[in-house]
Amino acid sequence: MQTGIISYGAALPRYRIESNEIWKVWKNLSTSFFDLLSIGERGVLGPEEDTITLAVAAAKTALERSGLPLEKIGAVFLGSGTSPYATKAAATVIVDAVGLPPSALSTDIQCADKSGSTALWLAAGMIEAGMIENALVIAADTLNRHTQPGMVLEYVASAGAVAFVLGKEGCIARLEGLATHSHDQNDYFRTEGERFIQPGAGFYGWVANWGLLDHVVPAGKALFEKTGLTPADFSKFAVPQKTGIRPLMTMGKLELDMMQVLPYVLTAQIGDCGAAGTMLSLAHILDFAEPGERIGVIDFGAGAGCDAWSLVCSDLLAERRPESGLVIQLLEDKILVDYATMLKFEQKLIQPPHRLSNFY
Amino acid sequence: MSTIKDVMLSLPSIFKPEKAKGWNRVILFDLAGEEPSKWTLTIENGTATVEEGATKTPKLTITGNSEHIVQMFTGEVPPMKLVNAKLLKMQGPMMDSIAFSGLWNIPKKG
Fold first, then answer.
1. Do A185 and A165 belong together in one domain?
2. What pLDDT digit, counting tens, does each position of B34-87 carry?
3. Size of interface A-B (CB pairs under 8 A)
4. I need a labelling partner for B81 at 20 to 30 A (CA). Which of A192, A226, A286, B40 fits?
5. Number of neighbours of residue A277 by Cβ within 10 angstroms
6. pTM of the model
7. How many structural domains are present in chain A?
8. Burial (0-12, 13-18, 19+ Cβ within 10 Å), A319
9. Contact yes or no for A259 and B19 at CB 8 A
10. Is any Cβ of chain B less than 8 angstroms from the Cβ of A287?
């Protein structure tokens, strides 16, 4: 493939809450799970933040780093499961906020936590086919706003956005191959009109990760088969990281080396960023990657499937390495808040009673 | 047998910086046993530095006897064997505990 990533940018909420703050209110989980599941801090939305504002912030960084004139962008895809709108597109708001041409094909792509990955490959297909020159793809989610107080998901439900500018010229990393595996697995979901995500199979234990390996293993193996590569051909992997268990399960079943995976798991620092989760790990990897390195991405969405793909860093990566806005800097730029402030900021004090899964 | 001070001060020389790109952590060794002591290991921007005492707020705390730390870093006993036998305890995200064990060129002994 000639298409690849020209630039990328990430955005995270500055407000964070520590797991202990949540535990002091609810005491609904043995604290031994915090270390076991690598639960530490998670993002808290500011009162004015949502999926769109985070997406716009990430998009502005990515576009600025690309150096491309805005009129070169032929498509804007927002991959998210938590758009503020149920019917209208959020991508059009991004078009206006960033100042992109109205001639750009803009749409939202909803595919659970792998929305961003799927959006990226749809855009790559259009570029590869010659329909457009460049695309802006954003993976963004606000799981925290869509998680009910008192649910154990609250310990990790976070938010973030990662944007990529794609094209054939000036790539810092070229896309190499994609394999995907999708079938229905009705786990984390919201039905029409619901605000809060229902964790059909719970949060911890084997059943909480029901569906993960059913998708990740066939998709990962298909990628290796399709490309003729083995795990040893990759230097690093960005993997699903809702909790710290998922990277271990993915790593074990696909026979990846722990040092290809674990240093790039950000769950303990920021929680589960949904569609931006694996992409944030990819951005973190790109911040420190070297030319020639092959990176694997395994992005899983509950009820959506798994996309497994590879990319190879080019010589331009070293030349155009960002000096500011690194993921590690965004993670460290934080303001800790207490539980009541989180409730206020995430606008959870004014909500009507909600329906829940019977599990929690 | 090496002293705990020898072992702790040797950590920067057996550190694998290429494995820790972007992995910035403060790790506290809170040790009892033959040589009770505290050591703060800071991994930042691909560099490992060691200071005696608890000088920073850690993300990962390793507790156990000093002689087991010596055994671990000199390659006499594999780290996971010590952890599984509960001779060493790691308090902090499990991801960090496992990743930490992959950051060192530990000599292999027969």
1. no
2. 999 999 999 999 999 999 999 999 999 999 999 999 999 999 998 888 888 999
3. 54
4. B40
5. 34
6. 0.94
7. 2
8. exposed
9. yes
10. yes
